[in-house]
Structure formats: C-alpha cells, structure tokens
C-alpha cells in the first residue's frame, strides 16, 4: 500500500529545514525528517489538522547509527483511521544530548513507547511523567539495543533494587470509606496469565490508583534478530504472540518479501490466509476461555480448548509443531501442505462452531457473567485510539479499524466477510467481538476452501531466496551452489527500510525493518498490538473493584511474549 | 477348623506394608504442581491439564497456585534475570520434600535466547530434578517428564533412607537390582 501523496498540513509555519520530506518516494510510506525543536508542535498539528488527522500513534522506536554525526534516530509511525493514511517521522538526535520532547500530551500511547526507547537506547523524553526502565530490570546498566552493546552481557538483579511503584493518588480525605491498603498481584499469579505485576491502592475494595510493572518476560527478541540471519529470525517471531504464532510468521515474511521485491506464489498465499484465520480462532479461544475462567466459568475453558486441540492437529500436519509452528518462510512456506489438508480443514469447520455456540448458550445471558462484565472497564472509541488501541478491543469500542479491511493483503479482498463492531467498549463486548470474529474467520476459510487449493509451488522459485529442491541439489551443480550460498550466507536483503503490517489476533501487528544490505537485519522493531493496550490498564481499572481488575485483564488478551518481546 | 492366616482375619480390604513404602507410593502418585508458567510453554502446560491430554491420569492435576500447598514446581517458560528473583522466592517458600521440573528449552538452558536479559537455565539458581526438552515440549513430553520424576522420587528417597542408616532397608537393597527391589517393596501397595 504505497501512499504516493504525502498529506499536507500547514508546513509553512515551521522554519525552513525543520521538516523535510524524504525523497525519493521509493519508500513504503511518506517519511519526514523532523528537527526535535518543532516535533511537539508538529505532532499536535498532525493530530488535529482536518487534512491530516493522524489520531493513532502506532509505534515509536529508536535506531542506532553509530557512524552518523547524529547517532540516534527516533522513528514515529502515525496512522489516520478516518483517512487510512500513514506517515513516518524521523527525528535525529546526537549522542551527547539525546533529548526529545515527550509526546504524551498528544498521544497517550507515547507513554510506554517512550519509556521503551529510553530503556533500550537511552533516548530521553523531556516532560515524560515517569521516565524509567520498562523492559530491562532495575539492576541493568547501559542500553542494550545500542550497536556497541554486547548481546550476551547480563546484569544480575538483586532484591533491593526492585521497581518502586508510582501511584497517581488523590490526597487522603474524609471521603475515604476505609483505611487505604496496597495489594500486589503477580508476577506469578493465576489471574495474570503471564508475567505482569499489578500494584493497586485500595479504599475498601475500590481501586484508587494502580501501577503496572512489566519486563518479566523481556527476552531480547529484537537484539537477537540483529545477530541472526533473515531466515533464522522466523522462529523468534513465533514466540511473540505464541497463541497465534503463524500470524507472526506471515507478518515478518511479508515485510522481508517487500524489501526483497518478491511475492509468494498463490498456493502459499492461499494457505497463509487460511492458517492465519485458524490461528486467530485459536487465539480468541484462549482469550475468551481465560477470561471466563477468571470470572469463575471453568466449563467454558474446556469447551474453548477442545477446538484448539483440533486446530493444533492441522498445524502439526503442516509443520510438525503444535504451537510454535515456524511454518512461514520468506517467499512462501516451509514445506508443502499435507495431502489431507482439505479434509482436515473441512472437518475443523464442522467441529468448531458447536463449541462456540455452547459457550454462548452458557454465558451470553448468564446473570453472573453479565454482572461481572457489562459496563466494566468501559472505554470510548476516541479514548482508545488515543491510547493506541487496535484490534478486537478497539472494535468493541465502536471503531471498525481492521487491517484486513483497510489495507487488504493476501486474499482478504477477494472474500466476503464483515468486520464485527460493538459499541459498549467493556469486558462483555470484548468477549462478544471475539466470538463474532471467530465466526467471520470461519466464513473466510469456508470461501477459500470452496475455491479449492491452487496448484503450483509453495515457495517462490528464486534461488537467492528459497532453497532449491533436494532433488536438484543432488543432481545439479548450480542448485548445490545456491544451496551452499543460502545456508552459509543467508538471504541478502537490499538496503532499505519498510514498515508492513497484518491484522494480528490482538490488533495491528507491524514490523519495522531496516536493512543495510547484509545477511542480517540491521534493526527490527515489532509493533506489538497489546503493548499500548496494556499501558491503559491502570486507567481502565481505576474506580473498579479488584474482581473487575481480574475480569479486565483477561479480556484485554495481553500476551507477555508479544508485550515484552 | 479355624483358618488363621492374616487375610482371613482382616478381610480383603487390608494390606500389609511398611510405612515408608506407603509414603513413597502416596508421594509418587499425588504431585501437587505449582505451574510457574511465563511463556509459550505455559500454553502447552494448559493443554496438558485440559481434557484432551488429561494429566490427572497420572495423579498430578491438582494445580495449586500457592507455593505452600504444592510440592512440584513446574517451570514452564523463559526465565529472565528479572523473573529470577520471584522464582527463587517461590522455590524457597515451598515446603520439603519438593521437586522441580524444568519444562522447555528456555528453562533448561536459556534456549535460543543467548541474550542480555535471559537466564541461561534455571539451574543457575535452583536445583532441577527433571529437564524436559522441546520448544515447547509436547504434552506427551511433559507427561513423560512427570513419569520420570515419579521414578526419581522413589529412587531418591531410597538413597536418603540408606544414607540415614536405616539398616534394614539398606541391607535389603544392597547388591540387588533396582527394579527387583522396588518391585518387592511396593508390590504390596501399588495398585495395578
């Protein structure tokens, strides 16, 4: 989706040279180089000007260029939901003075992204409310994603250094019903489904303020991708959102394919679409199942996990692995689809709907669940966008942004399906949107299966990208050489940069990749959909009870692997 | 004439055994696992205890989220340097006797994250009884690990008793093949 025309806010008011559109337009989206002095004002203009309306801050990351005079570059990715356009801002800063204005007053989503850039690169944001480490622990020294940081250099955390929560507390007054109490949830707590720590100040059972600590599963995926070849990065992408790992494969492979200028063959695209949708079904099953367990409806967890097991069967037949499939490859798929793919897929389409229907019968009008979910942690669409939400949670708040519809990729524009949108914005609607999306996913799969499996190769026929067939390696000198080159050197991706996205199970899953033309990525940044969503958590649960907090956490579907990478 | 064998006197609902053998048997067949799940492996752990694989067949499905109530720590997922502190604390809080299963490549060795924030195997800080390889291990793999642990529990306790100088047990076990010994000591109590 190359956007040729750059949006045009009133740029005249900025001093000459402070906002420079990057030419040539060979880039994937309009890119401006912005001086930091005008950044705050420009950001506000971009958000509010009727011709731009960039209401969503998708991503913010740092890139380190040690050879440049201004060593660091802060890269902002903006998106305008009403206009469907993208814009990238690059703000260079020098190592001696790596300070930028904080954009938290413009987009609340910037809060955690700025903390992350501070943590990993040492960029500082003037005016940030709580600029502390977020992914690395408090005993950490240095900034690991800088190029001169040794990838294996570890620091030990001791108990005296643990994170001190910051509460945005109202002063204690007469209207406090009870004595204030601080409770701690996590990092190892059954309701956190992963590895977060929530600390809340309570007045009786009402949450006055809370703080969230993450970083318990930060496993350096982005640094690891800089030390591995392009193909070797694929298993790391599996372990981002491990509930729907195939979607991550697709997102990464598509981005690299764009950089390379190759296209996956029709058979691979067809399989990618189907398996992505099955993965989405699995992910929604986990999320809804876990939410319902947390509010005490254990039966539904078993109901939701059975279809998952069935889908695992299909993925295992394709790739050999159940959970972390690594089935995508740059240029196609790892291997051909199994001969019984069609039968298995058709069978799944029969099996899954009854389970979902059973859950709906049990839950949708269940008084206990309604009391626990309706109106709980409700958020308006406008607010959610400002916090950087995408995906099912945003669609439960009345904003129908779906990458598959707004910027169709693979086969999504050739099938008939709907984007389910609900307007409550609460736990109940998040649950219902996911059930509706399971139905839509199955509808997409059904149409593709009816169309039949396209014949042809499963991976692109390009010896610089895909391994030649084994037969050819044994019999042809040329194929053997290509095989050797690919194994030893890996794929050579031309220099350039690219942001590409798919609709992940949690929202827009983007990969921003910078290549310097070598056999490894120069910088790889994942745009994790649940990172901005979870940053909203303290705001969402404020004023609710502890039990609301548990219900909310399940419904947001925060996956630690993706959150912290 | 009156039959005076033990069985007749007590009826069929009685068995005779040694107290320590009974304790072994109970311990082996009723682990109370604490799932320390952090990442992908935790999802496979959930599959293992769900209906399809049903870990309760092996007597270890009573998942407890309090370290005080559990005797088996299943570490499922990557442990990084930040998580090391809570992990050690939880291990220390568990009452003896306790065992640790390290599930998956990350918990065993750091996996393919040879990186600045990832612990290169949980045995850096706590002792591990069974390592289950895989990324993540299949539920069958985890179950095999639990079955291995069952054998290890018996073996370990036997060694402990021997070391404590329980002369009779030590003498009986000495010079005999392991399987025979365990077969005899548990023949009376182990159900088929």
Could you characterize what this model shows?
The complex is a heterodimer of chains A (565) and B (192). Chain A is α+β, with helices and mostly antiparallel strands. Chain A has 2 domains: 11-126, NADH:ubiquinone oxidoreductase Nqo5 subunit (Beta Polymerase, domain 2); 229-530, Cytochrome-c3 Hydrogenase, chain B (Orthogonal Bundle). Chain A contains 19 helices and 15 strands. In chain A, the strands form 5 sheets. A 5-stranded mixed β-sheet of chain A has the order 1-2-5-4-3. In chain A, strands 8-9-10 form a 3-stranded antiparallel β-sheet. Chain A has a 3-stranded antiparallel β-sheet with strand order 13-14-15. In chain A, a hairpin with a 2-residue loop joins strand 11 (328-329) and strand 12 (332-333). In chain A, helix 6 (266-294) runs antiparallel to helix 13. The radius of gyration of chain A is 24 Å and the shape is globular. With 192 residues, chain B is of the alpha/beta class. Chain B is 43% helix and 9% strand. Chain B contains 8 helices and 4 strands, in the order ααβαβαβαβααα. Chain B has helices spanning 6-10, 19-28, 40-49, 84-93, 105-109, 139-163, 167-173, 178-187, and strands at 33-37, 72-76, 99-103, 130-132. Chain B has a 4-stranded parallel β-sheet with strand order 1-2-3-4. In chain B, helix 5 links the parallel strand 3 and strand 4. In chain B, helix 2 (19-28) packs antiparallel against helix 6 (139-163) and helix 3 (40-49) crosses helix 6. Chain B starts with 5 loop residues before the first helix and ends in a 5-residue tail after the last helix. Classes of the chains: A alpha+beta (565), B alpha/beta (192). Chain A binds chain B through residues 135-137, 139-140, 144, 149-159, 162, 187-190, 194-195, 215-221, 223-224, 235-236, 239, 242-243, 286, 301-302, 305-306, 308-309, 312, 322-324, 560-561, and chain B through 36-40, 42-44, 46-47, 50-52, 65, 77-78, 80-87, 90, 106, 112-118, 135-136, 138.
């Amino acid at each position: 989706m190359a956007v040729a025309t750059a949006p045009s806010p009133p740029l005249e008011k900025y001093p000459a040279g402070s906002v420079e559109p990057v030419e040539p337009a060979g880039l994937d989206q309009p890119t401006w180089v912005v001086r930091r002095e005008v950044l705050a004002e420009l950001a506000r203009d971009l958000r509010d000007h009727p011709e731009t309306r960039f209401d969503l801050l998708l991503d913010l990351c740092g890139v380190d260029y040690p050879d440049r005079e201004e060593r660091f570059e802060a890269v902002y990715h903006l998106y305008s939901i009403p206009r469907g356009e993208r814009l990238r801002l690059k703000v260079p800063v020098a190592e001696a003075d790596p300070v930028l204005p904080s954009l938290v007053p413009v987009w609340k989503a910037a809060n955690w992204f700025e903390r992350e850039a501070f943590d990993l690169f040492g960029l500082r944001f003037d005016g940030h409310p709580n600029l502390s480490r977020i992914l690395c622990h408090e005993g950490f020294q240095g900034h690991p994603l800088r190029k001169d940081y040794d990838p294996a250099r570890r620091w030990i955390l001791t108990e005296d250094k643990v994170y001190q929560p910051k509460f945005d507390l109202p002063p204690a007054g007469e209207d406090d019903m009870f004595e204030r109490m601080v409770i701690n949830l996590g990092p190892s707590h059954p309701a956190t489904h992963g590895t977060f720590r929530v600390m809340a100040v309570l007045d009786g059972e009402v949450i006055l303020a809370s703080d969230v600590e993450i970083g318990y599963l930060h496993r350096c995926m982005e640094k690891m991708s800089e030390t591995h070849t392009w193909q070797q990065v694929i298993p790391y992408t599996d372990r981002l959102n491990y509930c729907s790992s195939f979607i991550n494969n697709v997102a990464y492979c598509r981005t690299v394919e764009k950089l390379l200028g190759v296209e996956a063959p029709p058979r691979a695209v067809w399989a990618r679409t189907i398996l992505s949708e099955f993965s989405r079904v699995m992910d929604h099953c986990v999320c809804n199942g876990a939410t319902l367990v947390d509010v005490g409806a254990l039966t539904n967890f078993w109901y939701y996990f059975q279809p998952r097991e069935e889908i695992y069967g299909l993925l295992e037949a394709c790739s050999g692995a159940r959970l972390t499939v690594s089935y995508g490859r740059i240029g196609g798929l790892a291997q051909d689809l199994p001969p019984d793919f069609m039968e298995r897929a058709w069978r799944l389409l029969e099996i899954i709907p009854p389970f979902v229907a059973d859950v709906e019968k049990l839950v949708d009008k269940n008084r206990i669940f309604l009391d626990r979910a309706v109106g709980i942690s409700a958020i308006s669409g406008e607010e959610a966008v400002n916090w950087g939400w995408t995906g099912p949670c945003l669609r439960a708040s009345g904003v129908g942004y779906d990458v598959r519809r707004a910027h169709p990729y693979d086969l999504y524009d050739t099938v008939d399906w709907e984007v389910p949108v609900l307007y409550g914005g609460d736990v109940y609607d998040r649950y219902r949107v996911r059930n509706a999306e399971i139905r839509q996913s199955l509808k997409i799969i059904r149409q593709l299966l009816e169309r039949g499996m396209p014949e042809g190769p499963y991976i692109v026929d390009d010896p610089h990208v895909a391994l030649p067939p084994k037969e050819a390696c044994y019999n042809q000198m040329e194929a053997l050489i290509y095989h050797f080159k690919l194994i030893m050197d890996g794929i050579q991706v031309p220099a350039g940069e690219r942001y590409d996205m798919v609709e992940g199970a949690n929202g827009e899953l983007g990969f921003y990749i910078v290549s310097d033309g070598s056999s490894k990525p120069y910088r790889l940044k994942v745009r994790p959909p649940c990172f901005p969503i979870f940053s909203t958590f303290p705001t969402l649960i404020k004023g609710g009870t502890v039990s609301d907090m548990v219900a909310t956490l399940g419904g947001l579907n925060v996956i630690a692997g993706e959150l912290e990478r | 004439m009156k039959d005076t064998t033990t069985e007749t006197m007590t009826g069929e609902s009685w068995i005779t055994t040694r107290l320590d053998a009974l304790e072994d048997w109970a311990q082996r067949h009723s682990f109370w696992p604490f799932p320390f799940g952090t990442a992908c492996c935790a999802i496979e752990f959930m599959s293992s205890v769900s209906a399809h694989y049903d870990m309760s067949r092996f007597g270890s499905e009573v998942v407890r989220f309090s370290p005080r109530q559990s005797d088996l720590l299943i570490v499922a997922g990557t442990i990084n340097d930040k998580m090391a502190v809570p992990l050690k604390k939880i291990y220390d809080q568990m009452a003896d006797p306790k065992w640790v299963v390290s599930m998956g490549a990350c918990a065993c060795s750091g996996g393919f994250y040879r990186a600045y924030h990832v612990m290169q195997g949980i045995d850096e800080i706590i002792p591990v009884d069974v390592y289950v390889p895989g990324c993540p291990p299949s539920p069958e793999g985890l179950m095999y690990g639990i079955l291995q642990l069952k054998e290890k529990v018996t073996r370990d306790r036997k060694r402990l008793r021997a070391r404590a100088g329980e002369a009779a047990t030590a003498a009986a076990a000495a010079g005999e093949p392991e399987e025979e010994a365990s077969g005899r000591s548990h023949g009376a109590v182990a159900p088929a």
